Amino acid sequence: MQTVTIKDIAKALNLSTSTVSRALRGSHEINTETKRLVLEYAEKLNYKPNPIALSLKENRSRAIGVIVPEIANNFFSQAINGIEAIAYNRGYHVMIFQSQESYEREVVNVQHMVARKVDGILISLSGYTTDMSHLQEPHNNGMPIVFFDRFSEQIDTHTVIADNFDGAFKATEHLILSGRKRIALLTSLEWLSITQERMAGYKAALKKYNIPLEDSLIRHCGFANEELLENVDRLLALSPAPDAFFTTSDRLALSCLTILKDKKVKIPEELSFVGFTNVKIAHLIDPPLTTVVQPAFEIGQTAAELLFDLIEEKKKNLPFQKVKLATTLEIRNSS
């Protein structure tokens, strides 16, 4: 089957190839009637643009790379949906990679994207990424990079996050106003940006209500369930024991609830429980889970818009933004 080209359309309609090209792109330089003729003829011949030829002509791949710690995490899957919605409307393809919370895999992912000449990178850092040299080098060479959710101050670029401080503050305040005084915080690795922001919100709420901060009630958990189990055991062994748990991620919330149920802890009678999560089944959990909800889809959309502005060189010379999107607290029976 012979491939239809712009030259074929131009010859058939007695137009220049540049006119046809601009008409297919919807350029304002071409009048409405000419656009109509070109588009109708192109559709009739089932014309499809050659992505390789376009990338060579525009010096763009029309593709972006996205790196997330884990696609199975509902927050990241929703964020990817937001990214893809914007990319599709802008005429870009999306290449998705998982770091699986590994710094080494993240480095390889970035190297692969640069080698494939993607037009830009959206990234949420792995749990063990502290060295930014794998991102700093392409960034210095002009590669547009935007952080979302997890970020680093070491690279000066756009960042899009949930308002982690406010979300954690509201969750902790809700537990305090419900009569809880010994609120345990189960959170992620301490060097992560989301950990620092959510812990700051937790501490601010305790301070507002004159509740002493106890370091023994704060537990940082890695990504092994054994580590979470050990931390839960230590918290329950305290005297007096915590009367509430606040967990700051999907993974911690669901795993922690499972551990507490196995230990026959009654929620919320013995222990109130609040998560920081985007799990869609939060209302179906027994008991239904009180949770801070992050606008994951909107975070993905906003990050993608900012990346495409960088790629297409819009809004030149404006300072990079740190965009914070509001969270909401959904109060259910677990608290």
TrEMBL record:
Q: Which GO terms describe its molecular function?
A: DNA-binding transcription factor activity; transcription cis-regulatory region binding
Q: Alphabetically list the UniProt keywords.
A: DNA-binding, Transcription, Transcription regulation
The family database entries (Pfam families) matched by this protein are listed as: LacI (PF00356), Peripla_BP_1 (PF00532)
Q: Which residues form the HTH lacI-type domain?
A: 4-58
Which SMART domains does the UniProt entry name for this protein?
HTH_LACI
What the entry lists under SUPFAM superfamilies is as follows: lambda repressor-like DNA-binding domains, Periplasmic binding protein-like I
The protein's matches in PROSITE patterns, at most eight in alphabetical order, are given as: HTH_LACI_2
Under what name is this protein listed?
LacI family DNA-binding transcriptional regulator
Protein source organism:
Xanthocytophaga agilis
